Amino acid sequence: MSGFTTRAVHSGQEPDRLTGAVIPPIYQTSTFVQDGINVLRDGHEYSRGSNPTRNGFEEQLCALEGGLRGFAFASGIACEDALLRAVLRPGDHVVLGGDGYGGTNRLITRVLAPWRIGHTPVDVTDLDEVRQAFVAETKVVWVETPTNPRLGIADLAALTELAHEHGALLVVDNTFASPYLQRPLEFGADVVVHSTTKYVGGHSDVLGGAVVVADREWAVEPVNGFSPGATLAELVGFQQFAGGAVAGPQDSYLAARGLKTLSLRMERHQDNAGRIAEWLTQRPEVSQVLYPGLPDHPGHELAARQMEGFGGMVSFRLRGGESAARRFAESTLMYKLSVSLGGVESLICWPSEMTHGSVVGTPQAVPTDLVRLSVGIEDLEDHLADLERAFTS
Ligand SMILES: *Cc1c(COP(=O)(O)O)cnc(C)c1O
């Protein structure tokens, strides 16, 4: 198999067969002409079922995660919803990483709970706590690593073993690491999900989500018309088509274009992030820096084994508490105050009531003295000058 960046540039991105256009066209079409009733050209009938631009992106991402099939959706949350409805039935239960994306928590606790999907929040960096959270109905263990926003590291090989012992799937939200730094399927995970809105797209100009599945059968009640021996690819593919939250051709094109430069961007993101994390440890205003690249981070050694770098996200806590954290987040200039992450430009957020507003007042609430940086690719001196200014303003 060719190298990562070669696959990022070429997998699913072959020149157009008809015209030779080096960049595959954006097939901005809803439907495809048939050469006779149900005689389809290249298998395309209607863009909810398949569209060459979307399919090209799905193949490209799948080649990078090392999966069997990829499926692209209109947003990260849409892909999570489709995946969970594909593999769960009423009465099932999810072991859910507690330090994670607030929207995933909202989906499971407020959208799926009324359909009798139970869940138990856990600290995914604590294997004993995870072990104790399983019940007979557990069908999915849902993990983000690095976690959001505390940047804890979960042991993917150990979690795979635990999930499989209990007859459950291990689903890994790989948005923070991206496939360049971490490939969960290599550790035995069954499914990878992405908000392609973030590092995959990489330019904060498109929303998207994707599911990549391993080659695996999954027994669910055959209410979809599938026999119990259906594969994850069949189940998710059916849900994508029948539920319909697909990525459009323009969005698929933007995500595919971004993905080609993932390795270059990630190198720069994490080079900047590592230096900024170190610099923050020297600041008297900071009580704790949360970055897995720092040697005293509790997940440092695990991250060094499991990842090929430590990523571009840095969180830190301020001695001055909530008011200092709020003031800091509102004081940077180059770092834009926004939710989201993973774009070339730097973003700052106060997760407590921005990204994690949906868990305020629950045990998953984020400490109010915590600030999260999505470190962009700008020049290091400009990062440090901006952060310095915010400390002293
Ligand atoms: C943003 C994000 C999501 C949700 O994705 P959308 O594209 O916003 O729907 C899911 N997981 C993680 C880790 C995210 O950062």
Automatic annotation (TrEMBL):
GO MF annotations, alphabetized: cystathionine gamma-lyase activity; cystathionine gamma-synthase activity; pyridoxal phosphate binding
Protein keywords: Pyridoxal phosphate, Transferase
Modified residues (N6-(pyridoxal phosphate)lysine): 198
Cofactor(s) essential for the protein: pyridoxal 5'-phosphate
Gene Ontology terms: cellular component: cytoplasm
NAD recorded as keyword: no
Pfam families, alphabetized: Cys_Met_Meta_PP
Enzyme Commission code(s) on record: 2.5.1.48
Family matches, as PANTHER family: CYSTATHIONINE GAMMA-LYASE, TRANS-SULFURATION ENZYME FAMILY MEMBER
Protein family: Belongs to the trans-sulfuration enzymes family.
Protein name: Cystathionine gamma-synthase
Organism of origin: Kocuria coralli
Lineage: Bacteria, Bacillati, Actinomycetota, Actinomycetes, Micrococcales
